[in-house]
Design a protein that fits this description.
Length: 149
């Protein structure tokens, strides 16, 4: 059996833990990262506060196109310190939950099958998966409560 990789590039709102945008591809690509970035920029465009986009120090987040796009939108770029996984722990926790809840112990027979399951999971995670720190609400429920206040 041949093992293939899938690359998930995602952006999370640190206020409620909601996955704002993401891209899935068979290969690491500038297009996948930039499409996900542009989605996150669009979704947060009406934010009244200074926006900060945090990431690890992977190649994609050090690209000139990435940093220039952030600068052009007046978004502050924050990066994890080299060799310090704790700086990006919230995103790593999401990836851990995703793997634990839909990946480990399951065989996916195609890229499309796994991609579809990840898309389903992100929707579930945002809209239905409750979190204690959000008062036992899902990220979307919490966001809607904040907007109503």
């Amino acid at each position: 059996m041949t093992v293939h990789k899938l690359y998930l590039d995602s952006f999370m709102d640190m206020c409620n833990g909601e996955i704002l945008s993401y891209g899935i591809d068979k290969n690491p690509s500038v297009k996948n990262v930039m499409d996900a970035l542009n989605g996150a920029i669009d979704i947060t465009s009406d934010c009244p506060c200074r926006r900060t986009f945090h990431s690890e120090q992977g190649w994609a987040y050090q690209m000139k196109a990435y940093s220039c796009r952030l600068k052009g939108e007046r978004i502050f770029q924050s990066m994890s310190r080299k060799g310090n996984c704790h700086d990006n722990s919230v995103m790593e926790n999401f990836f851990g939950l995703l793997k634990q809840e839909i990946y480990y112990g399951v065989v996916y027979y195609s890229y499309e099958e796994l991609k579809s399951e990840i898309e389903r999971y992100v929707k579930y995670y945002n809209e239905q998966r409750i979190k204690e720190k959000l008062g036992w609400m899902s990220p979307v429920q919490y966001r809607l409560i904040l907007l109503a206040a």
